[in-house]
Every structure is written in structure tokens, then in C-alpha cells.
């Protein structure tokens, strides 16, 4: 099958996670992504768990990418970028705002080489504004965005997931922006290429649902609420008798009735004061106490069986081991197997699923500089002498 982005050439500058994740999304769906690394390689090559000198993370994040190492602090390397841009559709970068301008590689300069070029710029606080020059790591930007404020338990330090959420969400926004810009260019709705400005804090801010209108319209500031969601009852995490955790979402009116009958509390199921969500919010503590008591008396498997029979949304909290052994994950193709130095390695599939132009992993993250000759000779036509000088 043809790939959705076949024929699209992307130049990926920058390193670590936000920009590279956008490049991963595009390369998975068929774009030719040329990743420019600094001499020594992207730091992700050595982060977290490492095997044979390269991290497992790199094998997933750099899949399908063509890698070349260039020192962009030199004019010769920057000239290579200018040449590559002439045949490219997209350039992704996640340097500090102003770095491309310092290197004479700004979107305005690059559009002189290629007026159809789309430039996606990812930074902590955006390309302008009073904070644009601040260092913008995902952890800091998650806090600044308001996202961290609502996570955790009242009176305790806000909690972060053990993931680089801000980087990944920013990468998703960049990918969306790139696809929108490609569509606009294709339909003639834009004057060739355009610039996409993605800020990590704004990407996380985009997840805040009703937090701002509730504050503006009602003066209500949403606070952290542990394992619940403010104003929606019941939806919570409970511990079973065998020490496992189960999530129950019983906040639909008819679902709540079925849930409480399954939990042996028909009195609550038929209580008019709990018939709708507004009433259940008032009685949240009482409802949660009843469900916690019931869950503590049953094993996780028994709870899930009873809740499935009652048609109540519920599920376990999975670890990596749980996911790897689950038949639904396998049936849905959520893992892809690649080979690294003769050894198999599973990496996650990239979503969404497309019926006619699906994505796929053609190769895992490759060794440093592995596509140097293909890029410099086959694409740019440089001679051996020019490559040696470079």
C-alpha cells in the first residue's frame, strides 16, 4: 500500500524529544525524514536503558529516519542545510528561539531557497513574547501551562507522570500543524510554505478542557483531586483484595444504577438524591466509600468479571509486562518487532490507524551517520573532495 506522506521530504533539526517525535510521526507514515545530528549523535542515543552502546528509546524514536551528523556551528554544515532545503517540503527545529536566525537559517532565509518550505518551530514558550528566551524544558512548561496544578492530591506537591508528556504533546501539535500546512499548500489556500510556531506550554494548555471558562465565568479554580475528576461522580481508582488497582467509570446515570446493584448497594442505585451527576457530586464521599469497601472485599479478576457482566466501564491499571502479554494489544497490532544486531526488539506501533495508507516501521533507529553518503552523494551530488572538506 502507498504511504500517506509518500514523496514528502522532511529535514529534522534539533535533538532530544519534541522535534524528533514529530519527525517520528511523519516518517512512520511515509515521509522521508533526514535527521541532522550533532557530531557524537543525538543525546537520546545514550539516555535511559542502553544496549550495545545505544538506548532502546533511540531504536523507537529514530525509526525510519536517515541520519547524518553535521556541526551546524560551521558555515559548511549550514550550507548543506540550505542545499537540502531546496528539495524539502518541511523543516522541523526545536532550538532556542533565535538560534536559526543566528545561523542565517531563519524561515525567511530558507524560503529564499524554497518558497514552498514549511517550517515547524518547537520551543518552550514560543517564538515571541516576554518569556520566549527562557529555557523551555517539558517539566517546567508542564507546570507553567497549568497542567501540573490539577494533578496530584490536595495539599501535596503536584505530580507528574513518569513520562516526557510536554515534549510528546508538543510533537503531536507540530505534526498536526505540519499536516494542516501541507493540506493548505496543496489546495492553494496558503502562499506556498508557512511557519508553524509550537510552544510546549501552549500544547499542554490545550489539554485543560473547561479549566479557563470555569474560572472566567464562575470564578471557580479547579484543584487537584487525587484519583478522581472534579465534578464527575463516580470515576475513581480502587484497590482490590489482592492488592491490585481497578478504575471504575460509573458516572452515567443508568451505569451508576447498574454499578451500585453489582456492588450490593441497591439502596444507592435507587436513591433519588443520587439519580443524576449533580446529586452524586454532593454524595461523592459516601459513594466512594461504598465502592472502596466493595472492591476491598473482591479480587481484581472477580471485580472485572462482575462489572463486565453489569456493563459498567472498568479496567485494570497496566504495567509494561501486562500490556506485552495482553491478547487485545496483540490483536490490535500495538507492537512491531525489529532486529538489532541479530536480536529481536519490540517497539510500539504509531497511531492513528489508517485503513488504506497505514504507517509502518521500515527500520529501527540506525547508527550515527549511517545515511551520510546517500544524503550527500545521492541527494546533493557532492564529490568525494567536497565531502572530505566538509
Overview of this protein structure:
There is one protein chain. With 390 residues, the chain is α/β, with parallel strands linked by helices. The chain folds into two domains: 9-206 and 333-389, Crotonobetainyl-coa:carnitine coa-transferase, domain 1 (Rossmann fold, 3-Layer(aba) Sandwich); 235-316, formyl-coa transferase, domain 3, CATH 3.30.1540. Helices cover 39% and strands 15% of the residues. The protein is built from 18 helices and 13 strands. It has a six-stranded parallel beta sheet, sandwiched between helices. Strand 9 and strand 10 (245-249) form a beta hairpin. The protein is elongated.
Question: Features of this protein?
Answer:
single chain; 390 residues; alpha/beta; Rossmann fold; formyl-coa transferase, domain 3; six-stranded parallel β-sheet; three-stranded antiparallel β-sheet; 18 helices; 39% helix
Chart the SSEs and their pairings.
Layout: E1 9-12, H1 18-28, E2 32-37, E3 50-51, E4 54-55, H2 56-61, E5 65-69, H3 75-85, E6 90-93, H4 99-102, H5 107-113, E7 118-123, H6 138-144, H7 165-187, E8 195-199, H8 200-205, H9 211-218, E9 235-239, E10 245-249, H10 253-262, H11 266-269, H12 277-282, H13 284-296, H14 300-309, E11 314-316, H15 320-325, H16 327-331, E12 335-340, E13 343-348, H17 372-379, H18 384-389
Parallel strand pairs: 1-2, 1-6, 2-5, 6-7, 7-8
Antiparallel strand pairs: 3-4, 9-10, 10-11, 12-13
Helix pairs in contact: 1-7
What is the CATH third-level topology name of the largest domain?
Answer: Rossmann fold
- SSE class: alpha/beta
What composes the largest sheet?
A: 6 strands, parallel
Radius of gyration: 25 Å
The fraction of residues in strands falls at 15-25%
Strand order of the biggest β-sheet: 5-2-1-6-7-8
**How many separate domains?**
2
Q: So what's the oligomer here?
A: single chain
Helix share, percent: 25-40%
Distance linking N and C termini: 38 Å
Number of helices: 18
User: What is the CATH architecture term of the largest domain?
Assistant: 3-Layer(aba) Sandwich
Low-confidence stretches: none
Can you identify the CATH superfamily of the largest domain? Answer: Crotonobetainyl-coa:carnitine coa-transferase, domain 1
| CATH top level class name of the largest domain | Alpha Beta
**Count of beta strands:** 13
User: How would you sum up the global shape?
Assistant: elongated
Amino acid at each position: 500500500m502507498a504511504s500517506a506522506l509518500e514523496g514528502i521530504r522532511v529535514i529534522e533539526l534539533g535533538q532530544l524529544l519534541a522535534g524528533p517525535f514529530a519527525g517520528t510521526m511523519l516518517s512512520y507514515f511515509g515521509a522521508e525524514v533526514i535527521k541532522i545530528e550533532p557530531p557524537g549523535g543525538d543525546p537520546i542515543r545514550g539516555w535511559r536503558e542502553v544496549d550495545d552502546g545505544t538506548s532502546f528509546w533511540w531504536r523507537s524514536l529514530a525509526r525510519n529516519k536517515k541520519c547524518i551528523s553535521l556541526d551546524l556551528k560551521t558555515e559548511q554544515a549550514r550550507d548543506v542545510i540550505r542545499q537540502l532545503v531546496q528539495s524539502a517540503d518541511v523543516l522541523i527545529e526545536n532550538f532556542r528561539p533565535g538560534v536559526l536566525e543566528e545561523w542565517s537559517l531563519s524561515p525567511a532565509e530558507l524560503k529564499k531557497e524554497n518558497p514552498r518550505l514549511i517550517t515547524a518551530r518547537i520551543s518552550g514558550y514560543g517564538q515571541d513574547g516576554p518569556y520566549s528566551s527562557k529555557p523551555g524544558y517539558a517539566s517546567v512548561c508542564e507546570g507553567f501551562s497549568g497542567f501540573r496544578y490539577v494533578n496530584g492530591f490536595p495539599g501535596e506537591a503536584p505530580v507528574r507522570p513518569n513520562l516526557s508528556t510536554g515534549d510528546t504533546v508538543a510533537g503531536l501539535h507540530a505534526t498536526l500543524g505540519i499536516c494542516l500546512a501541507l493540506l493548505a499548500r496543496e489546495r492553494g489556500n496558503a502562499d506556498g510554505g508557512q511557519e508553524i510556531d509550537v510552544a510546549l506550554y501552549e500544547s499542554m494548555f490545550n489539554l485543560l478542557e473547561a479549566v479557563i471558562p470555569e474560572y472566567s465565568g464562575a470564578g471557580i479554580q479547579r484543584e487537584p483531586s487525587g484519583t478522581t475528576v472534579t465534578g464527575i461522580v463516580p470515576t475513581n481508582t480502587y484497590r482490590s483484595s489482592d492488592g491490585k488497582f481497578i478504575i471504575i467509570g460509573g458516572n452515567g446515570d443508568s451505569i451508576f444504577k447498574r454499578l451500585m446493584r453489582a456492588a450490593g448497594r441497591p439502596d444507592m442505585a435507587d436513591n433519588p438524591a443520587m439519580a443524576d451527576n449533580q446529586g452524586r457530586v454532593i454524595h461523592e464521599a459516601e459513594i466512594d466509600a461504598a465502592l472502596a469497601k466493595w472492591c476491598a472485599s473482591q479480587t481484581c479478576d472477580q471485580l472485572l468479571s462482575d462489572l463486565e457482566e453489569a456493563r459498567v466501564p472498568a479496567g485494570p491499571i497496566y504495567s509494561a509486562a501486562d500490556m506485552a502479554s495482553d491478547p487485545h494489544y496483540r490483536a490490535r497490532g500495538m507492537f512491531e518487532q525489529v532486529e538489532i544486531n541479530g536480536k529481536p526488539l519490540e517497539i510500539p506501533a504509531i497511531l492513528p490507524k489508517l485503513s488504506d495508507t497505514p504507517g509502518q516501521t521500515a527500520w529501527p533507529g540506525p547508527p550515527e551517520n549511517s545515511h551520510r553518503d546517500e544524503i550527500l552523494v545521492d541527494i546533493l551530488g557532492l564529490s568525494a573532495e567536497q565531502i572530505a572538506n566538509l
